[in-house]
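Entry 14. Ran structure prediction on the chain below.
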Amino acid sequence: MEPASRDVRPPSATREALGVGAAVAAVILLGGVRIATLPDLGSVGGRTAVTAALTANDQVVYQSLLVAVDSVASLRKKTGRWPDVPALAGEEVPPFAPALLPTAARGLVWSVSANGTAADYAGVDPSGRRTAFLLRVKVPEKGASAEVWFRRGGTASAAGAYPVREGWFELVALDGDTGPRP
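Output, structure tokens:
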């Protein structure tokens, strides 16, 4: 008796093409779902885009702090020490000289905490209604660098060595971030 034999046919090209097409479609669909569910890049790991986080008045304070960095570094170079808030106000450096800000952007109380190579300028609202700001200026040998941080609720104290651990967010201008959007 001969063993029963079976004919094994090769898979049809049509069935194989349908299987590959279904696999490719599944990959594209899942990739699209993943991209659609990515987090907003306006706030990434303690860094926040200015226009995504601040009101128009707070953006004025932020821009003033960026401009103040050169004045702070220049006064430090001239006097050999970090300038205090009254010295910056006397030099008419906004936001430390509030008369140079729009009325709605005024009201923060500024203080400075400085050591040899860095200074923190903290602006807080005693009533706690406004955003608190922290300007951290460092002057290495090659020039000044700065970080601007914010924290909701103006009663926040000045930040320590790691502001993000204390609820502060670093503000950054992302590529293409040109200001408020209508």
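The helical segments are 13-36, 50-53, 56-79, 85-90. Will compare against last week's run tomorrow.
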